[in-house]
Amino acid sequence: MGGDHAPGPEVAGCVQAVREHGVRIVLVGDEPRLRTELRRLQAAPPGLVIHHASEVITMRDAPGQAVRSKRDSSMRVAFELVRRGEAQAVVSCGNSGAMLACGLLVLGRLPGVERPGIVLTFPTLSRSGRIGQCALLDMGANTECRPVTLAQFAVLGATFARLHNPQLGRPLVGLLSNGEEESKGTELLREAHALLRRPVPCDFDYVGFVEGQDVFQFARQEAHGGRCLDVVVTDGFTGNVVLKTAEGAAHLLGDLFRQQVRGSLLGRLGALLMLPTLRRMRQVIDVERRGGALLIGVAGVVIICHGRSSPRAISAAIALAREQAEAGIAPAVTAAMERHRALWSTAS
Amino acid sequence: MGGDHAPGPEVAGCVQAVREHGVRIVLVGDEPRLRTELRRLQAAPPGLVIHHASEVITMRDAPGQAVRSKRDSSMRVAFELVRRGEAQAVVSCGNSGAMLACGLLVLGRLPGVERPGIVLTFPTLSRSGRIGQCALLDMGANTECRPVTLAQFAVLGATFARLHNPQLGRPLVGLLSNGEEESKGTELLREAHALLRRPVPCDFDYVGFVEGQDVFQFARQEAHGGRCLDVVVTDGFTGNVVLKTAEGAAHLLGDLFRQQVRGSLLGRLGALLMLPTLRRMRQVIDVERRGGALLIGVAGVVIICHGRSSPRAISAAIALAREQAEAGIAPAVTAAMERHRALWSTAS
User: Fold this and answer.
1) Helix boundaries (H) for B205-291
2) How far apart are CA A347 and CA B331, in angstroms?
């Protein structure tokens, strides 16, 4: 109920997800409004039930306070369903700060996790032309971080990457900095780097400091079997800057392309011929296909969607939720945190 | 002499700059090698003289130490020429940390400047289709900053923007954060924001927190006369992340485009028809056209170029150096720092 245009796109996205992915969905929110939306769509899929909740956490609400005071808000009620095991994951386009607060207050952190993080995937392209995905975290749960938190994010990110892509093996993990050399970075980053390069057994390969471009095309990939990075670790402030800058640069290029095409007859004809090519390219960089971001480190599967998500994006987010729930992200994180304790043990 | 492929591209860039921009150039470095390069180019332009320097600061050198110990390095000697008024600007593709150290040690800071910054311009596109430039600083001189430093960067950036574009009037200045709301940002950013919104007379319009995408296309431009941002202020760590992420995203899109075009006959034909369109687009985003970045806040004009700059980029950097020298960036900064003292006076 808390998305920018809720609950229209949310209900349509759920209907699409039931049809496309065969999931079963509990729609939590104002029952009359949800029924109206379903009637408008002339949809009554068998796998979709409504659970009434009388309150709404809005985008303007202060997250912690709203989660505590609005006990019958659609968001909080949905999280309670997950806590009680009546649902296996929660997906929402609502206030992302409140999603984090619900994750912490209602579900709680998994054993050993200092701070949950938000993971989002970015498209990558290897030099041999292979298209893949790089998981970046934290995307905004923690504006400021401690070295231990960043070291833990490497473990969380690697665990996500392996469940997201079962063929992966050992994920390649980098720490985002302003240069590759060990002398670069802030004090925080140099301390996190010191933890991550400890000679202890790991499920992933830590490659050291990486730079912004390495998220998309890993500069040192030849030294790592021609592979792109699977995980890039950063604090929530910098993660937000990376996301917004990448989207901004892509938008600028798209708009410049359209502007130049419009101004030329040859350009228009060329673009017409290229339509299928441009569509295939669009599929790779399509942010709607990834659906949402995973809140990782809490005792449950939580997918945070953009406030203005389309039905298609919401359906994709639900598919991601099911993938992570079926793969067992929570027990996998608990086990991975225990296995990698030596990375940060005396430091925390 | 300190660029990655020096002195070949440097000499060729200088020859091009003399021809294109009619500047007079002192080539500082190993005289026999510079003469060899000039002979190879069969160039002896009248405006180009050689000043011998026996040492070289390399990319591996520790900046501060190298600048102090290599007194006859090409970089240090070039800075000395500027300090003595025998040259009006210095341009180099060498070790950028050493460039900063030379700026501080040889030229010194301008009155009132706490820390010099590095300014680089990014292409912008307004909703009405106007292409412009946004100056981002700091691009790496200061990995960690104080609130006063960021407030001063707003003044430095606005001064650069006005000299770079004399038609500008009052520059629009934003502070890069992870959201527009005043509650966003780190403590550093909220303190810098508190300084910049002080009700004191300014030569620029401060718009508050902005996000990564606003560097390219300002989201709130309608509220500001349909204009894009002229200046975005950030610390040197985040500035580096913005630059590398934007370049990485653009590269990814370019490579995906080429990959998809190669795989399709229609795509190839379309791309052929679109060549002039793609070339015009390329001109807008061409990083070689901006040449280099300005080290602002020191007593002289200093342009820092990429270590692997092409002759074309070096010629463009020389044109930028002349522009800033002729426009009088150093006296303009001194006057602006004095005029805007009230922004940070009791806080520093």
Assistant:
1) 236-262, 265-273, 275-285, 287-290
2) 50
Give the Cα separation of A130 and A147 in Å (integer). Answer: 33
Q: Give me the mean pLDDT over the B225-251 stretch.
A: 96
Cβ distance A248 to B217 less than 8 Å, yes or no, reads yes
Residue A348: its pLDDT value, please?
Answer: 47
Going by C-alpha positions, the residue among B247, B286, B273, B128 that lies closest to residue A275 is B273
Cβ distance A253 to B252 less than 8 Å, yes or no, reads no
Each residue's pLDDT tens digit, B95-126: 999 999 999 999 999 999 999 999 999 999 99
A253 close to B (CB below 8 A): yes
- Which region holds residue A260: left if phi is over 0, alpha if psi is between -120 and 50, else beta? alpha
Q: Which of A212, A272, A274 sits opposite B244 (nearest CB)?
A: A212
Residues of B in contact with A236 (CB under 8 A): 178
The pLDDT of residue B347: 54
Distance CA A155, CA B185 (A): 26
Domain spans of chain B, in order of start: 115-291+332-347
The CATH code of the domain at B115-291+332-347 is: 3.40.718.10
Write the pLDDT tens digit of every residue in B160-169.
Answer: 999 999 999 9
pLDDT classification of A108: cutoffs 50, 70, 90? very high
Whether A123 and B252 lie within 8 Å, measured CB to CB: yes
Closest-CA distance, A261 to chain B, in angstroms, reads 6
pLDDT in tens, A43-62: 888 889 999 999 999 999 99
CA distance B330 to chain A (A): 28
Kindly state whether A60 is in contact with chain B, defined as any CB-CB distance less than 8 angstroms: no
Peptide linkage before A235 cis (omega within 30 of 0): no
CB proximity list for A122: less than 8 A, separation 6 or greater: A133, A134, A136, A215, A216, A246
Query: Three-state SS for B14?
Result: helix
- Residue A148 phi/psi, 5-degree rounding, is -60, -40
**Contact between B277 and A266 using a beta-carbon 8 Å cutoff:** yes
pLDDT of B157 above 80:
yes
Give dist(CA B31, CA B53) in Å, integer. 7
Name the A residues in 216-235 with CB < 8 Å from any B CB.
216-217
Q: Taking residues A234-241, what's their average pLDDT?
A: 97
Specify the pTM: 0.94
B141-153 confidence digits (pLDDT tens)? 999 999 999 999 9
User: pLDDT at position B316, please?
Assistant: 96
Per-residue pLDDT, A282: 84
> Touching check for A244 and chain B: CB below 8 Å?
yes
Instruction: For residue B244, give the nearest of B139, B325, B148 by alpha carbon.
Output: B139
Q: Is the ipTM of this complex over 0.90?
A: yes
Of B147, B157, B121, whose CA–CA distance to B297 is shortest?
B157
Q: What is the mean pLDDT of residues A308-333?
A: 96
| Residue count of chain B | 348
Chain A residue with minimum CA distance to B141: A178
Name the residue of chain A whose CA is nearest to B143's CA: A186
What top-level class would CATH report for the domain A108-347? alpha beta
Helix or strand holding residue A295 (H, E): strand A293-296
How near does any CA of chain B get to the CA of A52, in Å? 32
